[in-house]
Amino acid sequence: MLMKIIESEESPPPDDPGGRGAAAADWTAMDGWAGSDERAGTDDWVDVQVLADYDLQRWADIEHDEPADPDAIPVPPDRFATERAAHIDAIIDTERRLAAAHHDRAVAIAAAQEFTERAVLPGIPITGAQWDGYEVAMRSLRAEVACALRIPEVSAGRILLESSMLVNRLPQTFAALGDGTISYKHARTVVEEIRALPDEALEDFEAAVLPRAARTTPVRFRAVARQVRERKHPWSIEKRREICLSDRSARFRPRHDGMAMLEFYQSADWAGAAYARITDLAISMQGSDETRTLTQLRSDVASELLLRGVTAEGLGTGIVATVHVTVPVFTLMGHDDEPAMLDGYGPIDAETARRLAGTATSWLRILTHPETGAVLSVGQNPEQVPADLKRFLQIRDGTCRFMGCGRPARLSEIDHTLDRQFGGQMTHDNLSHLCKMHHLLKHQTGWQLVQVKDGVLAWTAPTGHVYYTDPATPIQTPAIDTDTPPPF
């Protein structure tokens, strides 16, 4: 590789190409200029390896002061290079073994899928919607893979699909993953880019992209694979767009420090038009008195449109969102700054919590003990007063109680852990929230559920493995206080 020297006002002497003395030169690595290039013959381009060797020798010649750290002992250049090479070799070897481990995991997962498909068991008939035998078997497998790997079921479903594709449809990619030539990120990119690519085009696609995967970062490889896919795809882009439209979605992704991402996956024309609109509105708000950047204005404009705007069909008029905020009582009174908990997100700062509580037109008050975190009281919702037990369960569970499921409790169903027909009682220690899918999973497959203690649930898979889920808010049965007004 070649490196450009951009000299400062005080240039280094000819015998000091590194400029490590009085003059400091800025060194800029020029990506893509290695090897043959017309610039290579100019005086201001030097070989990086020559500089590296020079710097190591010059560093070794410096009379070092006694290091403050007794372990910081200067290493001769030849030993330095040898030991550094050994460390790099260890990193490379570990990465190859990691890729091989992903290869072996794909083999195991694909084998589990194949076995499950062969050993399909009939579903247990229930009233209403039910799954056929194949649906029962595959949903149960996906659920247990999610539990075993401690990941959401959506992620488990993706891994199941990726494993099946690698083992059964992408032999070249699968082999490269097994010998460590490419990473799992590269292999995943190949899987993603063959979506809607017919089987007869797969071999040529793999042969064209894999040589680049072996020497390209995953991000750059994705761009390369996308370009190759466009060249080799036998279908028109209109047909592919029609297929991909079924994947459009919106997702909420919590981030750190009270922030979050709201993502939309939509057709390019709609997404582009929406982005152009918020950009135009953001630009119109700029001025000498506006301190926000254009990026910040875009975000604020989009938020205002979603929260206060009305769609072309008039949808959204008159609908008021309900937000649950769990606030420590001392925080609410202004005596403490302990973070509150925003339902569906996590910790938020005390000032935001007090603002939400103070301006809410209707709210569900949840006061917690400042030391133990236990719920002290649950207020009433003035618009729709639910049963005290239901409110308690929503607070305790937070989401569907299957491992890894993020479906909010308010959108889930309340399930009797022990069915009423078998003597199950309508008590807090026999009730929990399950989303529609996991409610069906419990009743139609071999999964068994028991409540252990303090809201902890134990799920036993058909294989006999046991998985535990903890409540969102570890609490005891709260005292219901309906008379005391909010402390603000």
TrEMBL record:
Keywords: Endonuclease, Hydrolase, Nuclease
Keyword Kinase: no
GO function terms (MF aspect): endonuclease activity
Sequence segments annotated as region (Disordered): 1-26
HNH nuclease domain boundaries: 388-440
Name used for this protein in its record: HNH endonuclease
